[in-house]
Amino acid sequence: MYNFRRFLRLLLFIVPVSLTSVSAQKSDPKSDTALISINLAKAADTRGDTAIRLYNAAIQTAEKCLRDDGSKAYKDAVKRKLIKARLGLGLVFYNRIEYSRALDLYKRALKEAEELGNIALEAESNFNIAEVYLEQSQFANAMEFYNLSLSGYQKVKDHVNQFWCYTGMGIVQKQCGNYRDAVEFYSKALQKAGSAGLNYEEAICYNNLGNVHRKTGDFAKAMESYQKAIEVFRKLNDETAISDCLNNIGNLYLDNGDPFRALEYYRQALKAAEQTNDEYRLIIRYKNLAGAYTELKDYENAGLYLKDALKLAEKSGDKSFLASCNMQFGKLHATKNDFIIASAFYRKSVNLYAEIGARHEQSEALVELANTLISQNQVKEAINNATEALEIAKATGSLKGRLDASICLGQCYEKAGNSDKAYFYLKSATALKDSIYTVEKYRTIEEIEAGFARSELKKENEALTQNSILQKQAIRTKNIILVLLGISLVMGIALIWLIYKRKNEAKREAGAIRQQSEEKIGQLSEDLIGKERELTSKTIFINQKNQLLERLIKELDELKQSEVSAQSIQHLQVQLRQELAPNAWKEFEIQFNEVHPGFQQRLLEKYPELTPAERRLCSFIRLDMNTREISSLSGQSIKSIEVARTRIRKKLGVPHDQNLTNYIALI
Fold it and tell me: Which of 156, 154, 132, 155 is nearest to 144 (CA)?
């Protein structure tokens, strides 16, 4: 139900890689696995079609690697990446309400995780499958896979994801109308969150508990739970979670017969959903806005929002959403006295809720259907529907459901002329109403809601009190206002003069500081130029020395052909070559670090895979030296330098069309 949970988990799978290209490379095991990681990292940071393309690229590369030869450890690593790619792609389709495609990917991931024997990935796959079944209102399947996921997470001792499993099972039980079981699962989730110090997860659980209390008619506990949740979400600045809480508070006020306040909360909740284009939440927001406008008899706005909600619900194929939209259409037509059309919509809603096992909602729809049937004088059918609704409400423990069904049955029997039964049910309704809607509970709700903005209200009250005191003082001191104004004028002039004087002094001080800074900068510039000159002269000297040594080596090669001992000459050559590059580099390195401080450190931190020889070559390139000059200084052949430059370009991720010297100069 909460997509952000899967986003956070998906990020744990991927090691971010910062490279500039994800295009196809030569077939090489290391480059292929690196390419998979790159695509996974980039896909996690994107959405929509781009994410789909990147995940598919990762899947294709992984499948190709598995077809090629390789060790078991290598293939197991590739399989893990493949499973992560399928889970990530499934999440993209899940967020787009394309549940069938998401479910197919999750099931394939589960099969591969089982073959791999990775318990954590099996648990993740089972959880995602359960989430899809929950959205499709296939509650039995959802509970089965939540339990499988919970078992896996218990084996690996993952307390965070055990929390999410308990939360998911609580949502399933709430949707089925099993409120006692829902509270039990949420309580287990709270225990997990509390023991692990998961404040954010606790807030989510309180939000869901509020929904259960609202369904059972305990509005005070519901508001208290929402308050605990929203306080945490506001501290964390989580707009999506805040939106959910605001929407739930709107539902609470609509249940209490206050559509104006409900509308206010629904509008606030809609903003976050529209900003993120969250279709799942948009369906709920549009439907609830339609309900509030229906209560206010603003049928035009109600119809517009309801059409938008139904369009998205049909796209998702979610029977729970479709049932909810049909029920809202029924209420809209019933309010307009179109009872025949309203009955048709209510029947669709009843059948859909019965099909998915949403018992509480089924009870509500049956009551609404019975009310429209009373208006059509179909009393017998109305009694049957209201009686069924009452039985469901009793089974689920919903006081609000029992109240609505009892009122409806009282009206049915009154219409049928059976005053005894009408009195019985109306008396039961009165008792239920007294237990739900009490003055104390209303007061509790108002007090809790006031706590949401207690600090703001306190400031406002303080400001009002202060204004009142100032007004009274102004009346009492009316006769001395002119004197105070005169004094204020004199003090104002003096203050302006002091400010002007202080400003001039500040300007002079700033000018002196600026001059000192410029002098320091000039001195540093001169020092830097001197260092650069010294470095250049050192470089030239080293270059000349190396050329001399190279020439001596060549002459010694010629002497080998003479009668002089070739072995002694060769020994001398080896010693000369050993002295050629290291000594030159030591002298060069000292001067280079003084002119370009921190370059070697930045290069090491940003590209740790570079060898010392490659970092040394980067220093020469930083001085804009050509290959021949570098060869002379380092004692390496020109061909070796060119090969090393190619390796550096690859490790730094510099495209072939970009100048390597310019790229290194920016490090």
Answer: 132
Rg of the chain's alpha carbons, rounded to an integer?
Answer: 38
- Amino acid identity, residue 223? M
DSSP structural state of residue 197: T
Distances (CA, A) of 172 to 122, 208, 487, 559: 21, 11, 74, 92
Residue type present at position 335: T
Helices (H), 376-480: 379-396, 399-416, 419-436, 439-452, 454-476
Average pLDDT, the chain: 81
Measured distance CA(119)–CA(126) in Å, rounded: 10
How far is residue 136's CA from residue 130's CA, in Å, rounded to a whole number? 10
Sign for the CA dihedral angle at 238, 276, 93, 24 comes to negative
- 10 Å Cβ neighbour count for 79? 19
Q: What is the pLDDT of residue 573?
A: 65
Residue 216, judged by CB atoms within 10 A of its CB (0-12, 13-18, 19+), counts as: buried
Report whether pLDDT(2) > 50: no
Q: Are the C-beta atoms of residues 302 and 336 closer than 8 Å to each other?
A: no
Kindly state the DSSP code that residue 479 receives in the 8-state scheme: G
- Letter for the amino acid at 322? L
Q: Which residue has the tokens 């003084």?
A: 594
**Gap between the terminal Cα atoms of the chain:** 45
Q: How many CA atoms lie within 13 A of 241 on its CB side?
A: 26
CA distance 470 to 481: 13
Contact 664, 657 (CB under 8 A): no
Please give the Cα distance from 2 to 13 (Å, whole number): 19
Q: Residues with Cβ < 8 Å from 472, sequence gap 6 or more?
A: none
DSSP-derived secondary structure letter, 96: T
Over the stretch 169-216, which tens digit does the pLDDT of each residue have? 998 888 777 888 888 999 999 899 888 888 888 898 899 899 888 888
Say how far residue 31 (Cα) sits from the centre of its chain: 30
194: exposed, middle or buried (C-beta count within 10 Å: 0-12, 13-18, 19+)? middle
User: Considering only CA atoms, which of 613, 483, 630 is closest in space to residue 546?
Assistant: 630
User: What six digits make up the tokens of 643?
Assistant: 């090969």
| Gap between the Cα atoms of 171 and 152, Å rounded | 20
Q: What is the pLDDT of residues 52-68, one digit of tens each?
A: 999 999 899 889 888 88
Phi, psi values for residue 654, rounded to 5° = -90, 120
Tens of pLDDT, residues 287-318: 899 889 988 989 899 889 989 988 888 888 88
How many of the other CB atoms lie within 10 Å of CB of 164?
27
Q: Are 125 and 148 in contact (CB under 8 A)?
A: no
Instruction: Work out the average pLDDT over 443-465.
Output: 48
Cβ neighbours around 458 below 10 Å, total: 10
pTM of the model: 0.47
In order of start, what are the domains of the chain with their CATH numbers? Answer: 318-436 (1.25.40.10), 545-665 (no CATH)
pLDDT in tens, 472-523: 666 666 668 878 887 888 888 888 988 888 888 888 888 788 888 888 887 7
**Is pLDDT at 23 greater than 50 in this prediction?**
no
Amino acid at 613: A
* Other C-beta atoms lying within 10 Å of the C-beta of residue 243: 25
